[in-house]
Amino acid sequence: MNVIFVCTGNTCRSPMAEGFFKALCADSGTFEVCSRGIHAAEGMSASEYSVIAASELGSDIKGHLSHQITLADVSWADFIFAMTSSHASVLKSAFPEFANKIFTIGEFVGCADVADPYGGEVGIYRECAAQIKAAVQKIYDKLSDDI
Q1: 2-146 in CATH: which number?
Q2: Could you tell me which of 98, 128, 105 has the C-alpha nearest to residue 115?
Q3: In angstroms, how far is CA 9 from the centroid of its own chain?
Q4: Residues assigned a catalytic role
Q5: Residue closest to 108 by CA, chosen among 128, 86, 137, 74
Q6: Digit-coded pLDDT (tens) for 70-95
Q7: Residues 73/9, Cβ–Cβ less than 8 Å
Q8: Please, which residues have CB within 8 angstroms of residue 126's CB and are 6 or more apart in sequence?
Q9: Cβ contact 51:62 at 8 Å
Q10: Which of 20, 36, 91, 97 lies 20 to 30 Å (CA to CA) from residue 75?
């Protein structure tokens, strides 16, 4: 099963989600996961505070490089999880033929949109990482139950 997490620039939220999901399914071989941005500059590292916050919760995203989402990505994915409803709207407008596999994290597992921590203090990133990790665990559990 192929999963993509999407945020704006692919340097904060979606890399953390990707890292947490990879940690959960490291030994299963059941899932392939990546992250993308709807307005990403190619090849940017994950933000310093995202690396710190993810690491504190058990995920190493130091080697992450940002990527813009493409039609090939959307075609490949079985599920695409956007951090906010506005991200999901952009994706559904850009790729209407794939709207049935685009969700916000919130609508899929019953939590709030994940606010952008960009430019905030490390504490904001820690709160964001904790919210993402909890949501990713629920997504993993739900998808695993459906296999």
Answers
A1: 3.40.50.2300
A2: 128
A3: 11
A4: 7, 13, 116
A5: 137
A6: 999 999 999 999 999 999 999 999 99
A7: no
A8: 53, 56
A9: yes
A10: 20
